[in-house]
Amino acid sequence: MKRITINLHDMPLTQAQREMNRILKTCPKDTDEIEVIHGYHNGDRILRYIRFELKNPRISKKILGLNNGVTVIELKK
What we know:
This protein is of the alpha+beta class and about 80 residues long. The chain has two helices and four strands, in the order βαβαββ. The protein has helices spanning about 15-25, 45-55, and strands spanning about 5, 35, 60-65, 70-75.
């Protein structure tokens, strides 16, 4: 299993959106998961974007863990 980690914590929302779209376009085809560190203590705009608004044909599902500041995005094969 190949996992990429991206840290969007403390970025402005527009920058986080651009970075997330860039990662989804450019990550290797053999990538299974993207671990997104978005934080939640300093506001939840990026968390809400990643968990509820982000749409992409490569996304299979979003996994919410015990850490509210992280979301794992599972990619389609």
